[in-house]
Amino acid sequence: MKTGVWLIGARGNVAAVSIVGAKAVASGITETTGMVTAREPLSDLALPEVDDLVFAGHDIRSQSIVETAEAASASGGVPPQSTIEAVRSDVEAVDSRIKTGTAINCGQVVGDIAEGNAAVNQTVPDLVSAIRDDYESFVAEHDLDRLVVLNVASTEPPLENTDAYATADELEAAIENDDRALPASVLYAYAAVSEGHPYINFTPSTGSDLGGVREVARRNDVPHMGQDAKTGETLVKSALAPMFAGRNLRVLSWEGHNILGNTDGLVLDDEANKAGKVKSKDGLLEEILGYETQSRVRIDYTPSLGDRKTAWDHIHFKGFLGTEMKLQFTWEGSDSALAAPLVLDLVRLVAHADANGESGVQPQLASFFKSPMAYETHDLSQQFEQLREYAHTYLPET
Amino acid sequence: MKTGVWLIGARGNVAAVSIVGAKAVASGITETTGMVTAREPLSDLALPEVDDLVFAGHDIRSQSIVETAEAASASGGVPPQSTIEAVRSDVEAVDSRIKTGTAINCGQVVGDIAEGNAAVNQTVPDLVSAIRDDYESFVAEHDLDRLVVLNVASTEPPLENTDAYATADELEAAIENDDRALPASVLYAYAAVSEGHPYINFTPSTGSDLGGVREVARRNDVPHMGQDAKTGETLVKSALAPMFAGRNLRVLSWEGHNILGNTDGLVLDDEANKAGKVKSKDGLLEEILGYETQSRVRIDYTPSLGDRKTAWDHIHFKGFLGTEMKLQFTWEGSDSALAAPLVLDLVRLVAHADANGESGVQPQLASFFKSPMAYETHDLSQQFEQLREYAHTYLPET
Amino acid sequence: MKTGVWLIGARGNVAAVSIVGAKAVASGITETTGMVTAREPLSDLALPEVDDLVFAGHDIRSQSIVETAEAASASGGVPPQSTIEAVRSDVEAVDSRIKTGTAINCGQVVGDIAEGNAAVNQTVPDLVSAIRDDYESFVAEHDLDRLVVLNVASTEPPLENTDAYATADELEAAIENDDRALPASVLYAYAAVSEGHPYINFTPSTGSDLGGVREVARRNDVPHMGQDAKTGETLVKSALAPMFAGRNLRVLSWEGHNILGNTDGLVLDDEANKAGKVKSKDGLLEEILGYETQSRVRIDYTPSLGDRKTAWDHIHFKGFLGTEMKLQFTWEGSDSALAAPLVLDLVRLVAHADANGESGVQPQLASFFKSPMAYETHDLSQQFEQLREYAHTYLPET
Amino acid sequence: MKTGVWLIGARGNVAAVSIVGAKAVASGITETTGMVTAREPLSDLALPEVDDLVFAGHDIRSQSIVETAEAASASGGVPPQSTIEAVRSDVEAVDSRIKTGTAINCGQVVGDIAEGNAAVNQTVPDLVSAIRDDYESFVAEHDLDRLVVLNVASTEPPLENTDAYATADELEAAIENDDRALPASVLYAYAAVSEGHPYINFTPSTGSDLGGVREVARRNDVPHMGQDAKTGETLVKSALAPMFAGRNLRVLSWEGHNILGNTDGLVLDDEANKAGKVKSKDGLLEEILGYETQSRVRIDYTPSLGDRKTAWDHIHFKGFLGTEMKLQFTWEGSDSALAAPLVLDLVRLVAHADANGESGVQPQLASFFKSPMAYETHDLSQQFEQLREYAHTYLPET
Ligand SMILES: NC(=O)c1ccc[n+]([C@@H]2O[C@H](COP(=O)([O-])OP(=O)(O)OC[C@H]3O[C@@H](n4cnc5c(N)ncnc54)[C@H](O)[C@@H]3O)[C@@H](O)[C@H]2O)c1
Ligand SMILES: NC(=O)c1ccc[n+]([C@@H]2O[C@H](COP(=O)([O-])OP(=O)(O)OC[C@H]3O[C@@H](n4cnc5c(N)ncnc54)[C@H](O)[C@@H]3O)[C@@H](O)[C@H]2O)c1
Ligand SMILES: NC(=O)c1ccc[n+]([C@@H]2O[C@H](COP(=O)([O-])OP(=O)(O)OC[C@H]3O[C@@H](n4cnc5c(N)ncnc54)[C@H](O)[C@@H]3O)[C@@H](O)[C@H]2O)c1
Ligand SMILES: NC(=O)c1ccc[n+]([C@@H]2O[C@H](COP(=O)([O-])OP(=O)(O)OC[C@H]3O[C@@H](n4cnc5c(N)ncnc54)[C@H](O)[C@@H]3O)[C@@H](O)[C@H]2O)c1
Ligand code: NA
Ligand code: NA
């Protein structure tokens, strides 16, 4: 059983660390710490083995995956240089399978990274059909049993007029008519689900979160999910906010300040591209608390940090007898080390869903996302519970 | 419907702020922020009104409740001076109902606070019968429909040989034979449940967590619960630790440092009395994570902080590809402001349980305690869920 | 010996707390903690007594000083309500001496605060002569021995073309010709020094930091100093940065994030007004370190904090063998409580300088300012040393 | 000009990183960041070149320097593995010159590390003469122009009765009479200064801080200095405390909590050995502030951190109008990376002092120590100033 993994943004940090990590896990030189699917009860499911994943993808820049991994290693220690060495040839093989994608409507800063490589001038129908061809050639060439498409490309500026693509018909007409407003992430997502490939959106870009794409996915019985993997500050937020809610402590303000130094930081330093990110990091608070509160998320680019991200959150709250109190935290994480195992988890879990006939958005994957496209709650513990319940549905009773 | 609330340690900080707070809530001059029972779905239950609570209790020192409240106000701003003024005469009425308790086996530092007031030289059977009389006179005098006994006295040194009191028979024989090892908290708890009064242990002292007391409670159909209210650092721990577990991130060490300046801090500065506290703050980590990890809880006495407690926690963890990361938090809370609303919640909820024929330890109250005597999980969100489920059992479907 | 203190922005937070504080010190109900002049060796100088200070000033809004103090007390506990009560009538007397100032070129947000009260439409020469009259009437009416003018008004947007006012002649011609670019702070400062009154600029606004004003001050033998009192994050910066320099540790990045909730915060939330502030907070790092480093200062408005400001600084540095390390700090201060004693110190010290024939910018006051107009170093300890040396010049040898 | 460097504790972390670092600096593969002597004006002095330092020393354990460096590299990343590789043979040459020292009165935990290797049963006069022989053979064999002895051995428990060794005569009589109370550090220090070798005590152990040793040093015109290098939390303390003093802000409490995971941490986990350390970390606050304040320094052993030390300090202070405020900091440093460059600095600077006829304790080196044996102030900036002044004495005026 070979499962193909098509990464949009395959030469970025998250992709590179995911690929290096998958190869390292497969060859037994690293542990599975950080992978949710390595833990019970998920580890008891019939998931594709990490060993059986075949990687490929789109990117728009020429820096190779190994180069990205080495730069990440130098700037933040992840992956360790020795691990890169051990899997170098495997990773180079993946690199040879990367196709040039499109940077349409990805913003100026992404355009700069592309250095003119990316297809932006072709018509939209041509772009979509090129993407489709890339997917299908890969499946054919490697004789894959299934292909999962996963978006880890740079965050795009938000798509404004989403209502115009609320149905499959509207979306397909827009593509047909070369609608120049459609962003790359939508084209990749549409191409995936229309071909029957499960799709995961690891980023805050639109991707499959558009009426038209959702309808095509449902029509084709394809599972998909997004948006924006929950790896750092927001993860902590979704663990902590339920404490305030459950104890009826009133959050007066929640200030978050993120500093990070990798390419993702550089892209998010651009106000347009940042817009989507901040929105997605900020939404869950109100839902968990049940009221609106003063909240702000700053993301600043601090090159010296490399792939290491630090977040400081300052939570000012009120308790009994009007007493004001505070919780502050700092989170010092390696973005890619946090993201990469989730990439592998999501690939394995959406493949499992697909194999078992689940289709449309996948609420059991809500814990993985800052803005889950379908969910019951933003409360992290309860989201984990939902995932465990999904697993138990597929497990023999014990 | 009048519900009596008998507080062991009625002149302490937590008690004083609970009483002042209850009076302030009853008279509408403060909000119910911080009270779990003021939130849906609990607020829909038929709970005793805060207005209908009648307070009394035991203590061993002579400082009055108002004096304690004023000292707390001066040193930490809680309760506000204006609130104390507004309810002064109500609180003085409570003070006139305080009886002198016993400080037997409460350690040197508590003995010092007692200044010779507390009964320690009487025989154990005499102590128990005096306590019983105090409870029953209060019920009679105020024509109470129900009496809840709640322990907010200073933390005792742990009782060593708990096996010797594993059954009702053993415990009752020990009392009868004037066993000088029994600590005050057990005598208060036994007196309560043997008289049919629901009992809550807000502290890490033994209280009802003894085979013999549990058996008497079951025999008499009395609900009870403990130990050690979860108000600060441990509360945060139980919200955060599930995040590490759920994401398969390996906690390498979890260091906690608490500094606090109130009488509780002074008592906990004594190594013997601290022993029970640290144990109770430390236990839940292993259960949530599923493995043992290096963990430490320091409690230091810093008088300048008054009733304000600051905790610093440093969590060192490992993720994918061996990557080491960190989460640190500081918690700056007012101990009493956090504790007092929970005192009111627990009184109301255990009264509800009693009214509805629930008996023995009450797992639905697990979220309130660092070391719940009965529980399914230490995961805070799931404990909240359990409490909501309890509520829904008693609520008409909607 | 009566010393007049004319505060520009006399109804703001800093002014209100300074006035309330001075009255409280004078009447012995509060200590002098926080006042540099209350410490040896400065306390040995022949400084005007706090008791002998007579306050008045300009403002543009109608909220009274007591109202400002009460709002500050409610939102941040400073000054304590009881202190306000004790000095209320004294403070009301000051309020009756407040004159309406001008808000010319103070930006939109200050204009909003003025609610049309402030003079903006008069000609510049008229504005200057009105200000002069206000100063002189106050001196005459109260028979003052000396008048110190101190600017604690809202931060203005920076004045762009400072070169146009590099000499006294240019500046005076501009005033004469009704140059509409001159901001309020320059008019107040010019009016002060041209009348022979020592002047202090507590804010980042231009004030006396303009060639023309400096020349007039020198010509008239008037001491003056600024800019922007060093009270919080920058104070800590100037204490810490020399450590990195002295140990040859390389600062890779220094990120600062300030959140604050008072009117100052609201004004600084405006990008134009913020510009001056951020510049002044940021400059000293390079001077102390001796090289340029990545540094950023964020100021965000968080109303829930009231007058309490929290700053988080994250310092990433490199040591021996390329080792990367970190220092992080959080500073939780009351802005006005930090600023007010310095207002009193500066008044007393500039009066002393004036009495002793010192004129022009006053380098011995450098420790008080983020951007001292004359200084040898930004190193806080060395700035303190300079102030001690100044004192020793005037003290008999011991 | 060859300068010998004799390290007591030559196989420990600090020693190993110093030796590796010196070799790396000498061969140009690393920068001199972190070395105070690499900065102006010190870099203008005629100091021994790092290239010309010849290392040797005593230790009591068998683990080689390279093994220590590799363990440090694995647990904390310092020194980088590639650096160790580059200088491996040089370092192995140093290792071959290590002699077995004595562990007399170094406490149980050090005894355990020694595994029976260290001389403890010989008489004191024999121990001293063996140490002397080790020094002199090294000088002779390598034809050294000067030998500097520097103590980087584990911290000993404090020597109790220091008065008994207040003079050279008393000390020498005690040695002669085989006084079994004398600790190893004193023997090493006495042997050094009595042979005319400059001596530096990098640790809190007694070393040369004993009347008798001081007298011998003066008699022999030998410069020496100590104690306890100021590298982490205390360094920051000495930079920050002057800010509170200078601004007349009252420190109400200063709590420090250090967690560290290397062998030093293990040794300090022993209460006896910790005693000296805590004392030395704690002393400077009172001197800088001018009054006693509640202060505490916790040191806890957290193996997961390896050579990385984290300190959290919580400073509670009071300002104007009784306002309570806070400064908190966390310091995340690599102990050895901070210490090693100072070892090289101190060797170079004490050699310079010796070459220039300076003798006895060296106050210009105060900035390097937590408890300088001679000093004017604990204020870090002023200590730096003193060092600069020393340099300027030896530099041509410019
Ligand atoms: N913890 C995390 O790292 C994390 C968490 C949540 C979401 N994300 C999101 O994941 C994405 C990737 O993060 P990263 O750190 O790898 O960023 P990155 O900048 O290192 O990588 C992005 C890659 O996408 C490529 N790319 C950009 N636009 C493209 C397009 N239109 N088509 C194909 N390739 C394109 C870039 O060339 C680059 O190689 C970002 O959107 C980020 O916001 C990351
Ligand atoms: N957030 C919190 O404040 C919190 C949280 C969990 C547990 N607790 C526990 O609650 C208890 C009370 O805390 P506090 O801050 O009010 O302490 P406190 O010291 O202010 O009050 C304790 C009171 O108990 C009295 N007392 C002591 N021994 C007694 C005895 N044997 N019989 C009767 N009275 C006795 C004392 O005289 C004092 O008035 C402590 O055990 C504490 O550990 C408090
Ligand atoms: N720690 C500190 O608080 C601190 C430190 C350094 C500098 N400052 C500066 O001090 C100033 C005052 O701070 P604050 O907290 O009192 O602010 P605030 O907003 O409370 O007070 C400013 C006052 O100035 C008045 N004002 C504005 N423009 C004026 C004008 N042109 N003429 C006369 N009055 C005018 C306003 O009406 C208001 O009453 C600000 O510029 C601030 O940046 C404050
Ligand atoms: N930043 C810092 O690392 C720092 C700062 C100030 C002081 N210090 C002090 O420096 C010393 C060394 O620190 P470290 O981290 O290298 O510790 P370490 O435990 O790694 O090394 C100490 C070495 O000393 C050896 N030793 C112990 N007793 C000895 C004896 N009597 N004779 C000869 N050798 C002996 C041990 O075998 C070991 O090799 C400690 O006392 C520490 O407190 C370190
Ligand atoms: Na399907
Ligand atoms: Na003058």
Automatic annotation (TrEMBL), chains A, B, C, D:
<dbReference type="GO" id="GO:0004512">
    <property type="term" value="F:inositol-3-phosphate synthase activity"/>
</dbReference>
<feature type="domain" description="Myo-inositol-1-phosphate synthase GAPDH-like">
    <location>
        <begin position="232"/>
        <end position="336"/>
    </location>
</feature>
<comment type="similarity">
    <text>Belongs to the myo-inositol 1-phosphate synthase family.</text>
</comment>
<dbReference type="InterPro" id="IPR013021">
    <property type="entry name" value="Myo-inos-1-P_Synthase_GAPDH"/>
</dbReference>
<protein>
    <submittedName>
        <fullName>Inositol-3-phosphate synthase</fullName>
    </submittedName>
</protein>
<dbReference type="InterPro" id="IPR036291">
    <property type="entry name" value="NAD(P)-bd_dom_sf"/>
</dbReference>
<dbReference type="Pfam" id="PF01658">
    <property type="entry name" value="Inos-1-P_synth"/>
</dbReference>
<dbReference type="Pfam" id="PF07994">
    <property type="entry name" value="NAD_binding_5"/>
</dbReference>
<dbReference type="InterPro" id="IPR002587">
    <property type="entry name" value="Myo-inos-1-P_Synthase"/>
</dbReference>
